[in-house]
Amino acid sequence: MSSFSFALAGIGLFVLGLHALIVHAHLLRKILAINIMGSGVSLVLVALARRGGDALPDAVPHAMVITGIVVAVSATALALVLMLKLAAETGSATLPDDSPE
Amino acid sequence: MTLLAWGFDGLLLLGLLGLAWKALNSTDLFSAIALFIAFGLLMALVWVRLEAPDIALAEAAIGAGLSGALLLAALARLRGMEGNVTSNTGVEEAPNNIDARLVQWLSAILLLPVLFGLVYGVLSLPGNAVGLSAEINANLAASGVSNPVTAVLLNFRAYDTLLEVFVLLLALIAIWSMGSIQFNRSIETIGKTSLETTSSVLDTLVYLLVPVLMMVAAYLLWVGAHAPGGAFQAGSVLAAACVLLLLAGWPLHRLLTAMRLRLLAVAGPVVFVSMAAYSLIAEGALLQFPPEHAGTLILLLETVAALSIAVTLAALFSGGQGQHE
Amino acid sequence: MIAVIDLFSVLLLIAGAVFFLAGTLGLLRFPDVYTRLHALTKADNVGLGLIIAGLALQAESWAVAGKLVLIWLLVLLAGASVSYLVANGALKRGIRPWKS
Amino acid sequence: MNWDAWIPLLVVASSLLPGLVIFTLAEERIRLRTGLNLFGALTKLALVGWMFWGVYNGHHFETRLPLLPNLELVLRAGPLALLFVSLSTVLWLVTTIYAIGYLEGSPHRSRFFGFFSLCVTATVGVALSGNMITFLIFYEFLTLATYPLLVHRGTEEARRAGHTYLVYTMIGGALLLLGTAWLYSLTGTLEFTPRGFLSGLGEEHRHALIIIFVLMIAGLGVKAALVPLHGWLPLAMVAPAPVSALLHAVAVVKAGAFGIVRVVYDVFGVDFATGLGVMEPLAWLAGFTIIYGSLRALFQDDLKRRLAFSTISQVSYIVLGVAIAGPIATIGGVVHLVHQGLMKITLFFCAGNLAETLGIHKVSEMNGVGRRMPWTMAAFTIGAFGMIGAPPVAGFISKWYLGMGALEAGQSWVLLVLAGSSLLNAAYFLPILHAAWFRKSPESWPHEHDFGRKETAWALLLPPLITAALALAAGLLATLPFSPLEWAKLISVREFYRP
Amino acid sequence: MLQAVIADSHWAIILILLPLAAAVLCFLYARAANIIGVMTLSALVLSVAALGWQIRETGVYHHAIGGWEAPLGIGLYADGLSLLMLTITAVAGLGISIYATSYFKQQDAARFWPLWLLLLASLNALYLSADIFNLYITLELVGLAAVALAALTGGRDALAGAMRYLLATLLGSLAYLLGVALLYHGFGSVDIAILATQAEPVPVLWVAFGLMGAGLALKMALVPLHFWLPATHASAAAPVSALLSALVIKGAFYILLRLWLEIFAPHSGGAETLLGLLGSAAVIWGSLQALRQTRLKLLIAYSTVAQLGYLFIAFPLSTMAGAAVWSAAGYLALSHALAKAAMFLAAGNLMRFGGHDRIADLDRVVQRLPLTAGAFALAGVSIIGLPPSGGFVGKWLLLEAALTQGRWELVVVIILGSLLAAAYVFKVLGRAFTQAPVCQKARAVPARMEWAALLLACGAILLGFLAPFILPLMDIGDPFSASGVQP
Description:
The complex is a heteropentamer of chains A (about 100), B (about 325), C (about 100), D (about 500) and E (about 475).
Chain A: H1 2-23, H2 27-47, H3 59-90
Helix pairs in contact in A: 1-2, 2-3
Chain C: H1 2-29, H2 33-58, H3 62-92
Chain E: H1 2-8, H2 11-28, H3 33-58, E1 61-64, E2 75-78, H4 80-103, H5 106-128, H6 132-150, H7 156-187, H8 192-198, H9 203-219, H10 229-235, H11 238-264, H12 271-292, H13 296-318, H14 322-354, H15 363-368, H16 370-384, H17 390-404, H18 408-429, H19 447-462, H20 467-474
Antiparallel strand pairs in E: 1-2
Helix pairs in contact in E: 2-3, 2-5, 3-4, 4-5, 4-11, 4-14, 4-19, 5-6, 5-11, 6-7, 6-11, 7-9, 7-10, 8-11, 9-11, 10-11, 10-13, 11-14, 12-13, 12-18, 13-14, 13-17, 13-18, 14-16, 14-17, 14-19, 14-20, 16-18, 16-19, 17-18
């Protein structure tokens, strides 16, 4: 039963991150939210593999999650540099909401 | 499931969700990042609880360590631009004017059905797992390594890892393509001026710690074949060492001219692609390793990959500073 | 005979936990950054040492025991230099130590 | 290699390829451009002649190219198609000569002649199309090719006229597309067959077919300038004279009328259409357009707008001929297709000459112009008489056959319409002639270009004379084997009523 | 002998490895980037042709990577549908690359080429993969490369657009990954073929489809989630916006289509009507917005949102006439890619020449660039769907299906979409015929750029006549039969 609780925690993290992504204007917080959502998805991926007692540990989700983490860090690095360039250009680390008319 | 285990799990998950909520909604950015790093460490603990040591290592090294360092460096640079950057990049309290409040409630209401849908989907899954562990164990012998995760990563699904390494290279190219960021002097200021007088402590730390880190990286690389470890973990530990050197003010980018840095960063992907092409011609299938010396090939692949992962992650940290010709 | 080793490691673990508790209490109760640094580095390092010793008794091979001790040494090194850096940073930002 | 299969494609290509080449020519390459134009026109004329002779002896010219799953691009030279092709080819040659003279020294001529050739390609494509999908392709291609010609001058007024033209033709095209697709979904084929291919469909599709008929006629009616959809034509008179001459007297307007002829005869089939009860309203609509067009023409002071409204009413003669489901009326309608083209293009050429040489745009300014430009006005007079339906010129024949057809089909009200419109034609043409010939010319013309001894440039004078002569010949020599009338009889016999 | 070489060599793998190697080469030797890039693209076009010939002869191409069969290893799979998408990428890519060689200065070219070749490699990998987790990684690669390309110009709008695009694409990928997790744990494999056999209508299937659908819809800017597209595509450099509009969003559509055909269609339970509804909303809303724009590139970007709606109208129609409708949608995607690329390149020429892209005073600019005006006109004809063009063939087939199934609301949407498209295309083209004087500070536009745009536009028109050759190619290994009943 414990694997389902971890999976639900993963879902919780995903939705929490999504909420923060929508609500907060500051880009750094949005990047944090995306990282947390990534962890949530990884948690779901691995937790569900352990349903039904301690069967042999299934290595495929593990490999997927490691790949996911590395993808997350590269995306975060790119997002941070983009945020800094945007802040240097526009003076504020939030998305300018006017569409460029 | 004894009561104690239930208690421990409950505590762990509550801590995890609490930390995440606090990290996302804390008033000050710096505390948000600090809490995020704590969240990463707790996440590593969760992976250990779920019997996934490889992921725990990766999470601790990359998820908490490197991402945390990246976020802190970005915040420092953001505040470094304080001069021409309006105040709201610094301490930014959660906006509590009316329309922000409205957006919060609106998104909360919108996300409830999503939450219930997901929970319903997950709970409707059958009780016992239906994974691929049987197939993996059946073919583990032919994969040349005994650690199932490394077997999956570098043999069964080696194509994923090939693309994976290119994602890292792409991130590096993308960051360098955005032009060097003028204000990264602020990193050095933290590195040098504030610690001019006391560089001796940091230097001693570096002299002691960096060799150990190198040793640990080599060990992780080697042990990856039969125990948790592998290219990504080793690469990230090496990257941590490089970041430490950068922070200690070592002129790493003068040490590595741009071309040498590029060659190092590109080594992993190039070896992977050439290995893939060679195996296609020799063995008839993409990334097919002959069973008898699959182990050695994988080890070779992992070392080169670890090297370029380390260099790429360090370059990601320095944020486009080392790329000018 | 085995029970005695288990008894010893349980005792050591409890002692370690007490030291950690003390460190955390110090972190919460102390007024300024310097005193909190004291609490954290001193209490927690000792606590960690006790826990490592307790676990080393349980370890099935000397290699594992050696790794545990290595962990403790690394944490000591990191703890010391980081607390020094934080204190130095705080001084540079002009935070005066607390006076009653 | 069987030549017959490739001739239709060659006919279309003979103006497409020179057109594309002309686009790339620089402005000052006048001789090469004219050469290419004339070469294209002459080859097309030769090919059409070859086909004329072939069809007369029963050859079968058809090109089939794969286009869509079980739908093909079909170019077939049937007798009706040939009639329209020959009309547009001859008039294209004449108008090219006229345009070269008319546009002497004006900018963007490569662009103009490029689109001019594309437009003729589209017209020839419309004429030769063997099934509804090919017709649709060239029909829309015609819109695209004529829009740039319409806005060629680039003035604000031209752009607004272009805008309205686009709105009408785009919506028309969309309706036609919808009708065609719907028809294809019901029948599974779009091939033009002489007595229509819908006879097999049962009763349950009756309503659908009526709606399809309305959609198609509306789509085609835009270009055929049937009353509610005619708004764009008067505005389009802002285009240069050769454009309004060839396009709005021959190419665009006739494409619409030709489309209606095709739809009624080769898609629905006359009997099936009368069975559906759609022919009656079509006839009324055509009749109404005839009268309405002539009435509006009466009050237009601008010469070209008056000719535009007269075109609106004249084209509906063809539609009327089709709508009265009788063999003789069909002959009248089809032959009017040619006659109206010849007469109307003469009138537009003369209007162009007057504007170009004397700067006259208004009917009120035409006093005594007969003396100043006798040859142009002579051609104008022949055209005008043809329009009124006076015997020697071709217009009389088509009206005569239309009247006979109406009597044969028992639609006596059509006679009233014909008589009424002839009177109205007279009402708006005769004052012009009277003013031109019998009034005293003003002391100075608005801005006169002096061409020395001859009244205007050769290139401007020759074309109207040729077309006027043709109109006269079509009237007088109607009984010769290759005259439009005989050919129309051949069409009527071969296409519509198997003996 | 040649046939033997073509028949059994692994063209699919060349399509993936070659651009990767070329990207690395360009990254190392920036000076030779232009030549390497164009050579790679032309080699890719040839290998796509060879792959097409190969699968036409020997049927669907299947390759188990590393020798490991489906459940454990990853499979490469190339059938008619992937061949179509590969052709789109290679052909439009070649046109855009030729344009880019003379568009970018030396310093920008060094940054453009590695990113573009990586994007190309990931798109090819995406079209050839038969494993949904592998699709996640290729999606991520495509997303990051596209964001980096969008931010290339470095201006205020470009960076904001790129940031908005990055957040949207990351959110989309995460939702997609969660869907992959649910599918894997629900049915035990990440291989599409196995999932197709295992899937049955359990709640986890619908939740997974909801997640993946939402994620992919966000990445391809389907109407409610299209907020990020116009700003990004309009502010990027001309060849980059051509890439984004013509190629990148089609990757996400391909995945949604592949998953729909193989896994979700039999148990769709009404989802296709929702997709059809969103598609119709996209067509109408996108076209109306495009009509409102005052800047040319924004107009073209909104036109992308609208034309994508057409591809979604195929969903509700596919239940009854599966193969015909999907080949229509495929054909529309192909001609839209060429036409949209030509439009953006033409817009790039106009901006290079006149220095701005305000539609109101474009007339001085359009006068001087006849080839570009011609390219824009021909591309516009294909976007509207006027007869002699590829767009017409696609719309005719869609209209056909809608009429035979009596779906009147979709018929109206298709026709209205074409009319609105005509409105906004001719709104721009009307400018080409005014007598405005020459604008002063004009920068000459290299001929290569104008001819690249014109050739792409002619390609879109030529497609109008190539339907009978291309449509059967799409049906190799009949990818579309899985969904609706055969007509």
